[in-house]
Amino acid sequence: MPKGKTKPAVIDLEKLDKALWYAEDMLSRSQIEFMLFGDTAYSIINNTHPKYMRINLGTDHLNITEFGRRIFKLTNPDAEVTKHKIKFKSPDGVPIEIRIVYKNYGFLKNPDKVLYRMDSYNVPNPFAKYWKIYRLVQ
């Protein structure tokens, strides 16, 4: 491998699935509604192999109550909770990032539902509109 280049991360689908279930469990305990974002949403919607070994989620800032923050921190004491993101790791070490959205985007108002591994998840709707600017959503 050329000097300065790093070996790409191996994508372990089983660990990613477990991390998604773990994130869903932690967020439901904290009563925080969320939707799939970024590569996580793209790979599930398009039935493709994910590019990154992480879980990307998003939520509207109005879904993050003080109660939810406290419960989340109690169940995930190592989580990094800031105004714009919540970052933590699954028990297998998979990074999970939740983007807290403050702007008013139409594609986040009426999320679509996708079925993945017998579970239903919310995704931005229309997804194509979201995907064009997903890195800029804040």
Descriptive notes:
This protein has 138 residues and is an alpha+beta fold. The chain has a single domain, classed as 2-Layer Sandwich (Beta Polymerase, domain 2), CATH 3.30.460. It is built from four helices and seven strands; from the N terminus they run αβαβαβββββα. The strands form two sheets. Strands 1-2-5-4-3 form a five-stranded mixed β-sheet. A two-stranded antiparallel ribbon has the order 6-7. The mean pLDDT is 90.
SSE diagram, text form:
Blueprint: H1 13-29, E1 35-36, H2 38-45, E2 55-60, H3 66-75, E3 80-81, E4 85-89, E5 95-101, E6 112-116, E7 119-123, H4 127-133
Parallel strand pairs: 2-5
Antiparallel strand pairs: 1-2, 3-4, 4-5, 6-7
